[in-house]
Every structure is written in structure tokens, then in C-alpha cells.
What does this fold into?
Amino acid sequence: QIMRLITHNFLQCNLPKVTDKYPLILQATKVEQKEKEFEPEMAVAMLRKVEYEVLVAAAKAVEYNELPDTLPDNAESNEEFLKVFHHALFNVDVVEGTLTCKETGRVFPISNGIPNMLLKEDEV
Amino acid sequence: EAKRYSRNNHMVDVQRGLAARCLELLHLPEDTGPLMILDVGCGSGLSGEVIEEAGGHFMIGMDISPAMLEIARHKEFEGDLFLWDMGHGVSFRPGTFDGVISVSAVQWLCNSDTKHNKISRRMKAFFDSLYAALKRGGRAALQFYPQNAQQIELLTRFAMQSGFTGGVVVDYPNSTKAKKYYMCLFAGQQIHQQGVALPPRPNLSHVQVEFERRRKERHSRNNRAVKGSRQW
It folds into this structure.
């Protein structure tokens, strides 16, 4: 239940009136690595849903540098690539860090793996 | 102590039952691989466990209570958790979720302590963002406890205004105690323009059976023959 990069890939800023909501910029000060078993089906399914560039930037933020900067042409059948792709999405947990809105600079803290998206009265 | 334990156990069973029913009402397609499910007001993670036991789904849960999330964090399920107020909108990329469930949470949008215009703003933010976050053809099954008919009307009106079709399913409609309300919302294109389209009728045969069983129990307790039975 610690925030994984797959979750970050789908998350947007929830401040009203912000137009440049995606992605939130990830910074991690404490990270944990899991070793969840590689599931090729899962990885291929996510290939179609994930914004790859956002994942690459987030992976760098958590110091996981195995991902190529661009998607390989044969991504769906490239097992070597799918393994690092799967690892980046599911196996790197952000325990402490921040998510920052690109437009406003508003920082949402992550502690104990749980991002705090609560807005203040004057922000709503 | 044992009493409290069994009462807690009963609560857990009720909550898990509600979550299972929500999942059922989602009519998730089978054999399509891992699906992404949002759990609104996930609390201590009971429904999260139910979702994962159902197999292969990714869950993201959100709740407004740090204390509840702290309990959820120690549970076995793998979904990610957020400290989040649903009335601020659920901001995910369009089409992120295949389904959304909620157990005993959305009635809080009707919070009577809040001023009317604020309630409207929160409901709009919630349902607008929920509609966007669901993929086309996706469903939301939101179990809730309305205080009165006006709250049901208010919630469904805002849901429809945000683009949802659907309606309210009531389980055990004839029992004040057991009655349960589910908003069943559909985010997609309507094929037939026939007003509000309800999702396919869920199988309520278990509801009928349950009602019959309780009726027989009650009557046998009073030593009266059940109406329609041979003794009668």
C-alpha cells in the first residue's frame, strides 16, 4: 500500500482551476524495493495504459535507472524490457517524498507511503 | 470481551458483504486481464481485501481518515492508499478506472453541517471527476446510507448531471434493518434514448429467499402458521 509508480502514472492534481494537472512531479526521499514476481500479461496490459515518458521521469526520481528513455519498437514481445518495465511500475515503493503540481508549485506530501491530497479551505 | 469480538466480527462480515455486492453490481467483464478499481472511502481496507480476493485487480483506495488508513496500511492487500477528501474531486487521468466501488461512504457528501452551496460544489466535483476517471463503459457501484429520500434524490441528480446514467438498487427493500442502497452508475454512451437506463437487472433471487426465510422465522417464533403454507 506504499505508493507505486503505476499509481503516480495515473494521478493528477486535484486543485480546482488548474489546467496543467498531469503529471505531478515526484520526489522521493525514502524508497523501498519489492521483488514482486514478474507477470508478463500484467506488463503488456499496462504498456497500453501507461504514459511512458512520465514513468521514465518518475523512475529517475526514485533512482531506478534501468528503463530506456524511449519505448523499444518490439516492447510487447521484448521480455528483457518488460521485466524492467514491470519492476519500475510495481516494485519500487515511495515511502517518503512529495508530489508537486507543475502549475502552482503546490506540494502534496507522501508519508508512510500515503500521499496526502487533502486541500485547505482556501484552495477549494 | 467475547461479545465485543463477535460484534466486531459481525461488522467486518457486513462490510465485506457490502463490498462483494458492489463488485457484483459492477458487472466486470471476465477474462480481460487485470482491471483497475477505485475504492472511495476505503476506510480500514476491508473492501480492498475483498477486491483482491476476487482476483487480479489493481486497487487504489482513498479515505479522509488517517486513523483508518493506518489500519489499512498493515493489511495484506496490495492496493495503494491516499489520504483524500472525495468532495475535492478524484483527480485521475481520464479513463483510468474500469470500475469504482464505495462502501458506506458517499452519504457524507450530504453532510448537513455544511452549507448548501458547498454541498453542491462538493457533489459536482466528486461526480464530474468520477465520470472522467472512469473509462467509457465503466461502472460505479456506490453503497450508501441515505438519511431520507431527499438525500437519494440529491445524490442521483448530481450523478446524472455529471453524465452518468443508471439508478439505485435497493436490496432487502422490505426490511428497515437490512435494507441497503447502491447507486449503480454507468459512464458510457446510451444506445437507446429512453431516459435513464438502468444496468442489467442484478440477480435478486437471493434477496427474495432471504425475505422468505426471515418471514418464516418471525412467524414460527409467534407460533403462527406462515401465510400461504399448508397449516394456514
